[in-house]
Amino acid sequence: MSPPRLRFAPSPNGRLHLGHAYSALLNAEMARALHGTLLLRIEDIDPQRCRPELTEAIVDDLAWLGLGFPEPVWRQSARMSTYRAALEALRARGLVYPCTCTRREIQAAAGSPRDPDGAPLYPGTCRGRPVPDGPHAWRLDTARALALCPGPLAYTAFAPGEPETVRVADPARWGDAVIARKDVPTSYHLAVVLDDAAQGITHVVRGRDLEAATDLHVLLQRLFGLPTPRYHHHDLIRDEAGDKLSKSLRSEALAALRERGVSPEAVRARLGVPAR
């Protein structure tokens, strides 16, 4: 078996908060328990929201928590040619199609079914249309992709101190998901699958809000002939109102905690992660 390799992969589109801290610290604890290596990967495919100074802030916040990582640190913005080649490979197999629909148009045309994130399932408006001249996304033709992947799709879930379990993946519940955005030749789903394989990631530890996305990732792994890591989806850190912490809600950043004099040890204690 390959030596255990894990990764913590934040996006530099805002400052890290306690939810990120918990995921990073849990990744470090699991890597230690598995006698493995924890990598840092910067997921900066969004050219509008990701900024270099926020990448520096991420590294600074993680160092404050006592976490260091092997070099070099991968940045997805440097791997666009890899994503573009993978997209072209899917296109050559007839597994993706261009889409010019806006969110408003999808909302108006879609029926009642929704994907696991609660968004309307794409009704297939652009399927079969020629490639347009203007900006367009690329969607996976999920039915055709599943036809090329006979047999059950599944992955192994793990948790500390518990036996591993096999879970069946159901990519069809995502419909024809976006595989490449209008502004970049990839999406989170495509980039994370290619990068996990390229970095030899054997165990993925991430929030429960990404658990359903694993179904789609397993399908992409099968299409590209890539290994499927083991997955652990941890509970989310929530605020007093019960909402998960997020940058969009302007949850208190680690930087603000530092300015208030909160120590890394206090953060670990609050999150239930033991000090080392």
TrEMBL record:
Glutamyl/glutaminyl-tRNA synthetase class Ib catalytic domain span: 5-109, 173-268
Statement: the UniProt record of this protein carries the keyword Membrane: no
Highest rank taxon of the organism: Bacteria
PROSITE patterns: AA_TRNA_LIGASE_I (PS00178)
Keywords, comma-separated and alphabetical: Aminoacyl-tRNA synthetase, ATP-binding, Ligase, Metal-binding, Nucleotide-binding, Protein biosynthesis, Zinc
Gene3D superfamilies referenced in this protein's UniProt entry, alphabetically: HUPs
Protein's name according to its UniProt entry: tRNA glutamyl-Q(34) synthetase GluQRS
Species of the source: Methylobacterium ajmalii
